[in-house]
Amino acid sequence: MTLPRIRVPFFVLLILLIAMISAALSVVSYKMANEASNLTASQNTLSMSTETLQSIRRMLASARLVTRLTSHSTLTQQEDLESRLDQLGFIKEALTDSPTISAIFIGYATGDFFLVRVVRDQQHAVALKMHPDTRLVVQSIEHTDIDQTTPGSAAKNVHGRFIYFDQDLKRISQSYRPDYAKSYDPRTRGWYKSAAATNGLVTSAPYVFFTDGKLGQTLSIKSPDERSIIGVDISLDTLNDILQSKRITTGTHSAIVNDDGFVLAFDYEQKLSETNSPIPKSQAVNSNAKSVTTSAQQITSSVPQLKSLREMNVPIFSTVMSTFHERDSAKPVLANFNVDEIAWRVSTSPLNIEGGSPFYLVIASPDHELLANAHEIRRRGIFLAIIISLCSLPIGYLLISRPLKKLTNNIQGLMEFSENSVPIKSSFITELSTLGIAINRLRQTILAFTAYVPRELVRDLVKSGAEIQVGGESRYLTILFTDLKDFSALSETTPSRELLQRVSYYLELMTLAIKEEEGTVDKFIGDAVMAFWGAPVLDQHHAYHACHAAIKGQRRMVALNERLVSEKKTPLSVRIGIHTDAVLVGNIGSLERLSYTVMGDGVNIASRLEGINKTYGTKICVSHAVYKEAGERLWLRPIDKIRVKGRESEFLIYELLGIRDGSSETQATETEQALCELTEQAYALYAVKRYTEALSAYKDIVERFDDTLAQVMCEQCQANMTVEGSTPTQPL
Prior knowledge:
5 domains, 9-stranded antiparallel beta sheet, 8-stranded mixed beta sheet, 22 helices
């Protein structure tokens, strides 16, 4: 007994697969989340280190530029206070454009000293006990000429003063400070000595400014003539803001310390300095001149000093300091600590500053905060696994089974070349979306293919599934050729872009007329159009439809030319030739490149008929074969018998003027109908060689209608009257 084959719907199998995957994911999600959290913490630490280092470098770069520019200014060469005050505008701009610079000063070899300190706002001025409008403070020490022979003259000729300016550099007040002038000599200061002993720029180690208790550094450099030393004080106070804005988690602590573990910045509001304590030598030593032990503001025992990382009242930092000696000045060092039963992850990253001792960014984050996302992911993973398993049945049907069925039906309709088939909407499921896009592109490709190959041929090809092969068959068809009059001359005088646009209008117009009459556009040959009727779909009235399309094209060219004339452009004139004959039709070419086209003598005749229009001044020239197929439904007038190259026999050709269908678009006008009747009468005389009477009849047509064809036939009559029957008709 054979058991029946079990068929399981696809979405049921999908449910089972989802349940298995969900269970597996719930097991591994926690480990993956742990790894992701560790990676994120490391990336955040690296990013924070990089951004902090860049911020410090930007502050120093701006200050270095100002220091060097000031060293090359004329301020370094001025010998009196008034000349130095004339340069105050330059100093103001430098201080305004560089918010981290707090003061710019110059020490001269004569002992003179000129310092400009910026007061950023009214609150700052009030805090410094100055006039609220004060924005610049000048501290000046000047040495006038000293008489060495007179005791006490040196002290009398040293002047110290503070001058206060508002934001427009208007002097607010001035106070003399003789004690300041006698007690301060810039030549004895560390910033002066270190710069004087070095050819380049000197950067001090970070320290706390005596004036405002803020963290900063001093840059100094000697002038090119070595007669003065330029100094710039910069504030590192913004480092605290950087650390606070980059906090990884709420419980994270971060600090920037110097090489000896003293805090330069901290991510919580906390005072970083204290007074009345000995100053550690490491804070006062200049990074480029180790022999100098103090900076310009570190003079007395009351100068504020930095706190050690141990003194920040953060237990984890106290523990970190025990391993601070293991730091690496080239790369970050990661470590794990347990403090008060809390696991911490600590990174110590070097911040190497050019020309200075390295700083270190210390970041300590509690494990439970770093892994909070991992715990949440695990909990959600279990919950989602249950929900997915319960919801898989309807979701699997709605999102998988039904879309697949629609895709299958759409493919079936595409194989049948159904015109009612609509594009497939995009799905959020990648595979279904990709398959839908592929089907839509296939549809677009097939539709685009029908612009090159007849639609019925494509439909038969898709339905059969057979390979395309080279070959054809003989079939009785009607072929049409169109061409623009004087196109070569037009192309020489018309810009290429405009020419392309105008030709496109004409080609679109003719193509639409051919399509409306169920014709097949074979190809475009420059400004020429080749089309045929009767293949690939059989058409019992192919000649009539070809003539109908020709009349439509000519009538619509009238409207196009009216628009071109309104745009002051040269109108276009189209000539058309139509012939019916037995030709070879099919896939012609090679397997690499095929073309569904027609070949044979009939094609050549249709092409020659289009050219004959030029000789007789006509617009649509058709052969006698067309006349035999559809003459009773057309308004035609005979032209003449011709013989084309390659054929010995003559045949009569006609000009097509309209369709006998009653349509307002294609019906011949009364004038055209009259032309047909009168021309037929004149040609009847011409055909029996009654040239004198024919000439009179054609002249009457010329006088009444100014008809070009009649004028040509008048010339033919006169020529035949002169040499009647002496020469055969010449091939055209």
